[in-house]
Amino acid sequence: MKDEHRKIEVCFSPVLFNDFRNPDAITVIVDILRATSAIVTAFMNGVSRIIPVETLEQAADYKRKGYMVAAERDGLVQPFADFGNSPFNFTRDRVEGKHIVYSTTNGTQAIHQASECFSVVIGAYLNFSALCEYLIRQKRDIIILCAAWKNKFNLEDTLFSGAIAERILQDKNYYTICDSTLAAIDLFQLAKTDLLGYIDKAAQRHRLRKNKLDDVIEYCHTYDLTTIIPVLKNDYLIAL
Amino acid sequence: MKDEHRKIEVCFSPVLFNDFRNPDAITVIVDILRATSAIVTAFMNGVSRIIPVETLEQAADYKRKGYMVAAERDGLVQPFADFGNSPFNFTRDRVEGKHIVYSTTNGTQAIHQASECFSVVIGAYLNFSALCEYLIRQKRDIIILCAAWKNKFNLEDTLFSGAIAERILQDKNYYTICDSTLAAIDLFQLAKTDLLGYIDKAAQRHRLRKNKLDDVIEYCHTYDLTTIIPVLKNDYLIAL
After folding, report:
1. How far is residue B132's CA from residue B8's CA, in Å, rounded to a whole number?
2. Are the CB atoms for B70 and B100 separated by under 8 Å?
3. Does A130 touch chain B (CB under 8 A)?
4. How far is CA A89 from CA A84, A176, B26, B44, in A?
5. Measured between CB atoms, which of B15, B18, B187 is closest to A183?
6. Coarse DSSP helix, strand, coil percentages of chain A, rounded to the nearest 5 percent
7. The domain B6-239: what is its CATH number?
8. Cis check: omega of the bond before B34, within 30 degrees of 0
9. Cβ separation A150–B19 shorter than 8 A
10. Interface contact flag, B16 A13, Cβ < 8 Å
């Protein structure tokens, strides 16, 4: 493998991330249902800055200081928050030009874990093609970090990882020797002709349905509504 | 889901096991290339007891006390050991009636992690059908714990997990709501008509080939050479 070749890897859970750490890599955070889809939506609708925080205590602190706060756990909006993490909450009239504090069950923890990498970007179907083109232009190693569900492997993040990896590996500068990446690609290829049908069997979908939050699933699997790529700068996200 | 129904789950890495802990479950340890295939082979060939130890220091201690010791790291036999963990080392003339101490890169750590479950059994293609029938008869929750490769997801353990899960779920008393299990089954169904061809792309196969240890791969994917099921009793393995 020549030195100028760059590798792509998929990490199925934040708990596994220690064995992927690579200060030269760009890490793509993936939490399709629903954190990263919501974050991309917020930037589509003009949010100025998103401050991801790990704990509900931090989120409540920000609320007391006057920030607008989106916070949920297990798919449920927290009492102190302005709203939860459905992408449909991040409407232009609410978020345009604003700084929003954001804390979710899985997604924001993953962002913080990756913060020692060269850079951290936010991935979703909503910005898929722009993200892939951006990644290929950077000529750096790529780690796709699935936010997972309470540390457990999940299908919807895995399929999206497979979608990115399949596209990136079409570029001859990239390779993988990572079994997770191969598995993600194979699962995506199995699922891609009927992504929503396949996702229907995923555990996260059942959790969302139980909480009547499954109205976002089709939206979160829509390709290329935007070319915006949210990127971590210091401890907040801005549009690249 | 009725109470008498039992769930089956697949855990892709020992690092993820904390979120699967279940004192009522039987845990199946899977390290197809090569630890669990070697352990099953040893029992096929009449070994009396296998003492799995986590560290090389422990293994060397046992060696000084006069035990026969199998120990490797990264596929390489340790200097103090009698032999490494190729299944082909565990011949009848060497192991029959003996107690053998065993330490590997990934497999023995997984065994120790699972030791708080109701019981721990050793799975390989070599004892596949007997293992599945045994598991179904126990009417307990099942966790399939992949030994993985230095904590990272691997394809060969995942495929075998899919093979077990597919078979177990044919029994109406079992269900799964675990995305890992669904993924493992889908990958197994994709691979099963040409298991060796599929495994050819796995990272572990490349590591074994590099060390000229890939002669065992076909053997380790052979179904049903035995009906013996190794089980953890106190801190050693015996035939059930």
Report:
1. 12
2. yes
3. no
4. 7, 37, 44, 61
5. B187
6. 45, 20, 35
7. 3.90.1560.10
8. yes
9. yes
10. yes
Query: A182 touching B, CB under 8 A?
Result: yes
- The answer to whether A55 and A108 are in contact (CB under 8 A) is no
Contact residues on chain A for B12, CB-CB shorter than 8 A: 12, 153
* Contact at CB, A183 and B16, closer than 8 angstroms: no
Work out the end-to-end distance of chain B between its first and last CA atoms, rounded to an integer number of angstroms. 31
In this complex, is the C-beta atom of B155 within 8 Å of any C-beta atom belonging to chain A? yes
User: In CATH, what class is A7-239?
Assistant: alpha beta
Q: How far apart are CA B133 and CA B69, in angstroms?
A: 32
- Is B12 in CB contact (< 8 Å) with chain A? yes
Give the count of beta carbons closer than 10 Å to the beta carbon of residue B64.
9
Distance from CA of residue B51 to its chain's centroid?
A: 15
Chain B residues touching residue A149 (CB < 8 angstroms): 179
B133 interfacial to chain A (CB closer than 8 Å): no
User: Whole-prediction pTM value?
Assistant: 0.94
Q: What is the pLDDT along chain A (240 residues), one digit of tens a residue?
A: 445 799 999 999 999 999 999 999 999 999 999 899 999 999 999 999 999 998 999 999 999 999 999 998 877 889 999 998 899 999 999 999 999 999 987 878 888 889 889 999 999 999 999 999 999 999 999 999 999 988 999 999 999 999 999 999 999 999 998 999 999 999 999 999 999 999 888 777 777 777 767 778 999 999 999 999 999 999 899 999
E-strand ranges in B26-84 read: 26-30, 49-52, 68-73, 76-77
Chain B hits for A187, Cβ within 8 Å: 183, 186-187
Q: Are A56 and A63 in contact (CB under 8 A)?
A: no
- Name residue B123's beta-bridge partners: B30
Residue written as token pair 């690579």:
A22
